[in-house]
Amino acid sequence: MSRAQFDKQQVIDAATGLFWQQGYQAASMQQIVQCTGLKPGSLYLAFGNKQGLFAEAIKAYGANGRAQLQALFASTDSIGRSICEIFSGMISEAISKDYCSCFLVKAQLELATEGNTHAALLQLVQEELAAVEVVYANALSRDFGEQKAQALARSIMLHIFGLRVYGYKHNSAEQLLETLQLGLSWLPWDSIETKH
Amino acid sequence: MSRAQFDKQQVIDAATGLFWQQGYQAASMQQIVQCTGLKPGSLYLAFGNKQGLFAEAIKAYGANGRAQLQALFASTDSIGRSICEIFSGMISEAISKDYCSCFLVKAQLELATEGNTHAALLQLVQEELAAVEVVYANALSRDFGEQKAQALARSIMLHIFGLRVYGYKHNSAEQLLETLQLGLSWLPWDSIETKH
DNA sequence: CCATTTCTTGAACAATCATTCAAGAAATGT
DNA sequence: ACATTTCTTGAATGATTGTTCAAGAAATGG
């Protein structure tokens, strides 16, 4: 017997970066071979095919994001302030030079074609996105009733999606923050103010 | 001499539908040959290459959408109510079976890759999106000061983007409407209420 | 009615795509 | 040390990609 001579998670992370930047279709297996260092045969033995590798990338990205969210909510004494900090981080990403939105958002828009040739992958992506909404709703139910928490979670998701797209326009951080404050006026934005 | 034996606008519209549903990369020239009825040679004589045809599709889509917006704003006596009606229409699209978001939003996310191989097309898409924002800002400046109108236009764009992505989740029309009302509370939603 | 120009045709092109597989290397089980 | 299993290698496969071009058809100009 012989054990795998590469770190599977490392390979998935490298592939995730490529898929994230280029998209599913535009990322070629040749590029993946290059950026992972593996030969085609090893890749196909480990992941089956391109879809299998993409599925692993989506799962890893989703699990990581969800874990970060849950850790943040578990350790904070103010869900609202934590959410403000999350948005603040997203604004920082949006104004950075090599901004490339959110992997799940990009994947959903690319995979949701009429022919539906990637039905399994699309469902996976949508499950990951739905799971994120659940995490927000659960956290908010600490401060609000269940109905209200779910409604607020939907509003948060809408703003995340909006920001993930709007981020490509070269707005200033102040403009983006102001826009979020306008739509999410119930959040305690004062708690993250940096100006004096 | 011989004049073109096909209606160029008709060809662009057919190609737009395909690009919109499938995306730029996934839509193959063979598919375009099929859905337009033209032979490759004619397509390449008329549009140069795939990028040229895509550019025409984006321009046509953008010009059409902008014209509709401007016509609506020119003929209404309430900008706010018209905007509510626009969102109401977007909700209807979102809950329909063959929903495929907004062509410009999808194109922006697909073309904005790190390698930036489609820089010209990306810029075109972003210009179209920026033009939409200007139309909203101009319309709102009828009711608000210029600064406020621009801020509100940014908020509208963020909500449009959010809805264009969130629309893929199978939410009810009521939930989507409620989410928009939460973030755009300054709009006169009462004016489009259908319930009694 | 011929010459010229413009458009159409569709087979063919090179490049790239995802994927395969026989052969060799390496690690384990006994 | 040997047999067995598992992983690696990388050239090769057939399909599909965007694009071209020589030849023919059609319409116009004089």
UniProtKB/TrEMBL annotation, chains A, B:
Domain called HTH tetR-type: residue spans: 5-65
DNA-binding region ranges: 28-47
Transcription in keyword set: yes
InterPro entries: Homeodomain-like_sf, HTH_TetR, Tet_transcr_reg_TetR-rel_C_sf
PROSITE patterns noted in UniProt: HTH_TETR_2
Keyword Lipid metabolism in annotation: no
Domain of life: Bacteria
Keywords for the protein's UniProt record, in alphabetical order: DNA-binding, Transcription, Transcription regulation
Listed transmembrane segments: none
The name this protein goes by in its record: TetR/AcrR family transcriptional regulator
Gene source species: Corallincola platygyrae
